[in-house]
Every structure is written in structure tokens, then in C-alpha cells.
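Entry 0007
Protein: Peptidyl-tRNA hydrolase
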Amino acid sequence: MTEDLPGAGELILLAGLGNPGPQYAGNRHNVGFMVLDELAARVGGKFKAHKTGGEVLEGRLAGRRVVLVKPRSYMNLSGGPVVGAAKFYKVPPSGVVVVHDELDVDFGALKLKFGGGDNGHNGLRSITKSLGTRDYYRVRFGIGRPPGRQDPADFVLKDFSTVERKELPLEVDRCADATEALIGTGLAAAQNSFHAG
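Output (C-alpha cells):
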């Protein structure tokens, strides 16, 4: 086991961020949900409502025990359901992995990291506040910056462009691969494999 491996041998909590409801399903802000749905397909199960305020699925990925969590709250309240599930399953912050959209990473690129700020992301801000620490893993799915003077808050609540939608299934699949690599081989090895240039 390497020291940069999430959860060192224990259960890992994988949280994907998004907004609930069909009107948000295709939004850039919901890419965390899209990746979790792909991981759920790999686990071979269905999400079930949980008393902690999210939908959960327990299983195995990359040889590790995992619980997948999709909050049923809006993005800016993600912390409650994520931390509720972490406490319920007794997962420390070092075993929490959050998959989310990232404005400062180009579409088609991924960045994995441990700790750091929220970079204006309301979901991360809520999780950090609820956890009481920034020390958890992040899988950052690049959505790029909005064109021209478009407000980032509007941009993240729009669906991916036509061109992006053609690539989206491939990128979601790749992000799921990166998440599995992170929990299976550790942060440094996953970064070496999935960070472009």
C-alpha cells in the first residue's frame, strides 16, 4: 500500500456532485453524477435512497470496498449528505473521494489531487465546511471556462455543447477509469497515468 492511497485498506466513499432533477441532468455541473452512474454500472448495482440524504450503492471497485454517494440536495448543500454518509459508514476524510466539475481545467482533461481550496465551487465549499477539513481527495473533470463574458454560474448550469456531447461518454468513462486508478494504485500513479502533458 502506498501512503497516497485513499482510505488505506478501509472502505472508500466516492461522492459525485450534481443537482437533483431531470432539468439539471445534462448540465456541466452534473458531471460528477454522470461519472458515478458509470461507476455504478461497473459495480453492477442500483442506487438506493439513504437516510443520510443521498443515494448510495455499496460494492467493489479496483479491488477495494466502496460506497458510491450521490447527494439528493442541491449542489451548494452537498456537504450534509456526503458527510452524513461518511459518518454512517465510518469513513474518515482521508477515505473520501469527490468527483466534480472544474472550470480551471480544460474540457477533455482531468486532474486528481488531495486537499486544497474550493476554487469557488459551492459543492466543495459545502463539503469542506461539513467535514471540517480540506484533506480529502478530488477528481476534477475539466469543463473549461465560459466563452466571452458569460457568467460562470450560468455556464455550469448549461448542458455541454454539441461538440462536447460527442466526446462526453468517452470523457466520463476516462474519469471513471481515473477514479478507479486513484483508489487502486494511489494518487501519484493515477496522476502519472491521467494528467495530460
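Curator remark: The longest strand covers residues 54-61. The chain has a mean pLDDT of 93.
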